[in-house]
Design a protein that fits this description.
flat, 150 residues, binds zinc ion, mainly alpha, membrane, Membrane-bound metal-dependent hydrolase, YdjM-like
Length: 150
Amino acid sequence: MLITTHIAATLFLGKYLDLSGPGWLVAFLGGVAIDIDHALLNFKYLPNIKLFFKKASDVSGRFNQHWWTHEAFFGAISGAAIGVFCAILLAVQWWIFLLFQFSHIALDGLMKFEHQPLAPFSKRKYFGPLASGTKIEFVVSLIVLGVIIL
Ligand SMILES: [Zn+2]
């Protein structure tokens, strides 16, 4: 999904949970910043790094845009580990990173590109029902952002 959608979802959930200070930082790391793997794996941006990581980390077939942290099983394990790290470092609840990362994975999982939820243990795949990055999604996410912020 678009970054505006992930920002809106993170703000919505964070406000619902009444987060403060470091909680918001961890929420944005899990809910938005995990998309950094797109930059690392997408051929358009950094081809050399993509080739370096390709064999070990590509689970999305022809799309090559996300790593296992974007898949449900590995995402849950890595999210819990990162959450515990954040809890020790920033004195926040350990589940904040995991919850926001899961919200990100759940939203991305709706997109019509290849997902392998059990990676790296299974190559079983599915395609979500919604087209990714449409103008409608962009406009709706901006409206939701406006409602949340105002
Ligand atoms: Zn994503």
